[in-house]
Design a protein that fits this description.
heterodimer, A: 263 residues, alpha/beta, Nucleotidyltransferase, domain 5, five-stranded mixed β-sheet, 10 strands, 39% helix, globular, B: 425 residues, four-stranded parallel β-sheet, 19 helices, 54% helix
Chain lengths: 263, 425
């Protein structure tokens, strides 16, 4: 016997280098399910686990359409479509911030993206090169060297005083941090330098494109750290918006694309 | 496959290392070319040449050398083939398009040298490129600092002749380049033992012009909304043309163009209608560098034109062969070659004008400007290229890459996102 369907739902799965983010939205675009878990060693396994958990809460009665995004997007075997994180973050940000013209700064685990959105669509974008400077990975490596979590580092940085890490390369910068530790520099000052280095790198990258009129919106893993947002505001000289769901921006966008597939 | 081992051995090549190279190439050719559907039949010529790229042509060159002809190995589209051909010399390109050769190059060059230079030096010093082994003389030119210094290494055991390319385009620079061509002609006469004549040079000008016209016919077919050939196949044709005999090259390109023009009349396209058309600009793509074309054409877009030395710059503009003295013909050559808008010139507004003109002629939906890592000239020019294109309302994506496959995923994300952007706008 066929279960009676109660409507089309969009599921967006954003498999990032560090975390997998999933959002399911109902036919009206309202989020009814959110999931955040480490990507782990196998994107395929993680995707399957997400699908299985999702089905526990929402069975056959909802018709699910899947869009996968993020660097692991090709590892979601049941996805109806793969769409890049650029398009998904842009769409997600438009939904989350309720603006059609905005600029997205997404600091992810492995790359940093800057996206200019004009009238709801991407008009220009930029991603960092192979180097991990200015990304979440940079922060993780430095936090690890300082025996802290990234969250602790970003909080502590707010109490530090101006200190410089000159190198933008993660490997060299780590040596510099070790040097600072050796010289007895206060931990909060080193934390200050780490956040400063990320913010400076993002600001420099942004110089390569023409930011649009609308607000700057911070998405990705670092949006939960108020101090990072504060520093970005200072660096750009304009307000930086964020949202409790900003970490899910890519998944929101993917879910919205999934819903649109049915139309 | 014919047995070329004896020939490679006689050339003093490192057979063991060369075997490794021979093992990877068929896989790459299979992945990049043979997976395509509905290819023009006339590509059979280039499929054959690439399948034995270190065999067929090198064997021909050696046969010609036995007759006393000299082989000139060149690195750049500034070297006037006409002068060499007029003295009965043979021009060939040299290897430098694979990651295979990069580590060898890095043994003697700084790491932050562009992969094209590192690969060339690696191919030469590692003795795994027959063309480097065969050439009687290498002809270099001063189009970038990296090459200038690399020639000092390459010239250690083979005669190396260097042409000094002007860095600006004032009238006196055209005269200077004419003088460089005249000096080169004297050198070519010395190497070949043949004297240049007006008649011979005019004939060589005609031969090379015919080759350019034939290549242009193939490229013109790519301007059609009904796209009769993929970017990958067109690129292969261009890359091989640097190594081939110019008259055979013209014949084969014309044969291909005949088929492409028929395809257009028959409405035969290699891509579905609406596939986004990309103009690629930037640093040259030496064989077997097909990385970017392959990623673009497996990301829902297609390459319709290459504004690069392995592209339009190789065949655009003909030489006026109407003059009746060598000096005037050298000037005619200078005028044609100096129309090349290489990033070595300052200022270089011509390149931007070319990109915009070609984007319109080839009906490109977007431009991808990609430079090889550590190519400062093209990298710096990206900003002015991007600004000019934006002002024209032509979307542009700037990229940087090398010969390694490790950034393929990142490139694919950027290119797919660019295609999605073109599809949504």
């Amino acid at each position: 016997m066929r279960t009676r369907k109660i409507g089309h739902y969009g599921v967006g799965i954003d498999i990032g280098s560090t975390c997998a983010k999933t959002v399911m939205i109902d036919p009206d675009g309202k989020a009814v399910w959110r999931d955040l878990r480490p990507t782990g060693w196998s994107s395929v396994e993680t995707a399957r686990a997400i699908s299985s958990d999702l089905s526990k809460g929402f069975g056959e009665e909802v018709e699910k359409h899947y869009v996968a995004t993020g660097y692991g997007r090709v590892s979601v075997p049941f996805a109806d479509k793969c769409i890049t994180e650029i398009s998904c973050h842009a769409k997600g940000a438009v939904l989350l911030f309720g603006e059609k013209n905005l600029n997205v700064i997404d600091i992810g685990g492995q790359d940093t993206k800057l996206i200019v959105v004009t009238e709801g669509v991407v008009s220009e974008f930029l991603m960092n090169d192979k180097c991990s400077a200015g990304t979440g990975r940079f922060l993780e490596v430095m936090a690890n060297t300082l025996s802290m979590t990234p969250a602790q580092l970003c909080t502590l940085a707010g109490t530090g005083k101006e200190t410089q890490i000159s190198s933008l390369c993660t490997v060299f910068a780590e040596s510099e941090v070790i040097n600072l530790i050796g010289r007895g520099t206060a931990r909060e000052d080193i934390a200050w330098a780490v956040v400063d280095s990320i913010v400076r790198k993002v600001r420099t990258q942004a110089g390569k494109l023409r930011l649009g009129k609308g607000p700057l919106c911070l998405t990705g893993g670092l949006c939960d750290f108020p101090y990072v947002r504060e520093k970005l505001q200072a660096a750009f000289g304009r307000e930086v918006l964020t949202s409790p769901d900003a970490r899910f921006a890519g998944a929101f966008g993917a879910a919205q694309y999934a819903l649109e597939l049915t139309r | 496959m014919a047995d070329y081992v004896k020939m490679w051995e006689n050339l003093g090549m490192d057979l063991e290392s060369h075997d490794l190279l021979c093992q990877v190439l068929p896989t790459a050719v299979g992945d990049v070319f043979m997976t395509q559907e509905n290819r023009p039949k006339a590509m059979d010529f280039w499929d054959l040449v690439i399948s034995e790229v270190h065999g067929i042509r090198p064997a021909e060159l050696i046969e010609e050398q036995k007759k006393g002809r000299k082989v000139f190995g060149t690195f750049c589209v500034f070297v006037p083939d006409e002068v060499i051909i007029a003295a009965d010399g043979i021009v060939t390109g040299l290897c430098g398009g694979s990651q295979f050769w990069v580590p060898g190059g890095e043994e003697v060059l700084p790491k932050n040298t562009c992969p094209l230079i590192k690969a060339s030096v690696g191919a030469r010093l590692g003795r795994t490129c027959p063309f480097f082994r065969i050439a009687d003389v290498y002809v270099g030119e001063t189009t970038c600092d990296g090459k200038k210094k690399a020639y000092e290494i390459l010239g250690q055991d083979v005669p190396m002749y260097i042409m000094d390319v002007p860095q600006m385009k004032r009238p006196k620079d055209l005269v200077k380049w004419k003088e460089e061509i005249a000096d080169f002609a004297a050198k070519v006469e010395e190497i070949t033992g043949n004297t240049l004549s007006v008649e011979k040079l005019k004939d060589a000008i005609r031969i090379v012009n015919e080759k350019r016209k034939a290549m242009k016919r193939v490229y013109d077919a790519r301007k059609s909304e009904i796209l009769p050939i993929s970017g990958r196949d067109a690129l292969l044709m261009t890359q091989i043309s640097f190594f081939d005999d110019p008259e055979r090259c013209a014949k084969m390109c014309n044969r291909l163009a005949d088929e492409l023009e028929q395809r257009i009349r028959d409405g035969v396209s290699v891509v579905p209608a609406g596939t986004r058309r990309i103009l690629l600009t930037g640093t040259p793509l030496a064989v077997p560098n097909w990385k970017l074309h392959n990623i673009i054409e497996t990301s829902g877009a297609v390459v319709v034109c290459e504004e690069m030395c392995t592209g339009t710059r190789y065949f655009e503009n003909l030489v006026d062969g109407s003059a009746e003295t060598l000096d005037e013909l050298y000037m005619a050559l200078s005028e044609r070659y100096m129309k090349n808008n290489c990033a070595c010139f300052t200022p270089n507004p011509g390149r931007i004008e070319d990109i915009i003109r070609l984007a319109k002629e080839y009906k490109a939906d977007g431009v991808i400007d990609c430079s090889l890592k550590f190519c400062g000239l093209y990298d710096i020019e990206k900003r002015s290229v991007a600004e000019a294109l934006k002002a024209e309302g032509i979307p542009v994506l700037s990229l940087e890459t090398d010969y390694e496959d490790s950034d393929a995923g990142q490139l694919r994300t950027r290119i797919e996102a660019f295609v999605e952007m073109l599809n949504e706008s």
